[in-house]
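Translate structure to sequence.
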């Protein structure tokens, strides 16, 4: 039977990953302006996210612009949006499923084997959600690195990894680790029934006398 403590630990880690995925998705610092090479202008810092771009002045003033046109967005932004939103949706479904399947809840308490299977399904969904977030963040990060090392990219147009990428990577790892704990502790145990043995033919029969 599944261990309730390890199940709760896995659910907690996956839930923290779910919160981190939401935070990473709404953060604007997916990529930040680079000051490497000859790009030493520090009067302003530029950030770009999945939903808007911001410019931070040295005086502390921040100006942001929301992306108005969906069709004008680069494919990398649209694709990462879809992957992150899919990860959040899968995580939300996993939370609802695991609330039913975890040992610390009373739902389906009279059917422990099916309860373990429900928790296992929630763990698998958490792992899928973590993979989706990991692919989205890594894909966006790969594009940043590719453009940074491209010799044809102007120096003042180069960007580096923003803090949202690190939050997304951490959230994806937490989600997958939590889902792994939920899966590993849902392996079906024994059926709980003692093995039955055939009754010996000699038992219960009166002894016979032979002449």
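Result:
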């Amino acid at each position: 039977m599944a261990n309730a403590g390890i199940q709760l630990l896995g659910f907690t880690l996956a839930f923290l990953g779910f919160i981190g995925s939401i935070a990473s998705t709404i953060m604007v610092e997916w990529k930040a302006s680079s000051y490497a090479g000859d790009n030493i202008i520090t009067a302003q810092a530029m950030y770009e996210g999945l939903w808007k771009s911001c410019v931070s002045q040295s005086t502390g003033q921040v100006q942001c612009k929301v992306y108005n046109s969906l069709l004008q967005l680069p494919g990398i932004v649209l694709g990462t949006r879809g992957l992150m939103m899919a990860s959040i949706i899968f995580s939300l479904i996993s939370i609802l499923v695991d609330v039913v399947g975890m040992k610390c809840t009373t739902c389906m308490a009279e059917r422990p084997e099916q309860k373990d299977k429900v928790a296992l399904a929630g763990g698998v969904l958490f792992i899928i959600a973590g993979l989706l977030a990991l692919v989205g963040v890594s894909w966006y990060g790969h594009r940043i690195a590719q453009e940074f090392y491209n010799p044809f990219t102007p120096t003042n147009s180069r960007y580096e990894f923003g803090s949202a990428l690190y939050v997304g990577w951490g959230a994806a790892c937490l989600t997958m680790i939590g889902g792994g704990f939920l899966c590993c502790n849902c392996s079906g145990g024994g059926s709980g029934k003692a093995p039955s043995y055939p009754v010996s033919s000699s038992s219960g029969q009166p002894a016979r006398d032979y002449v």
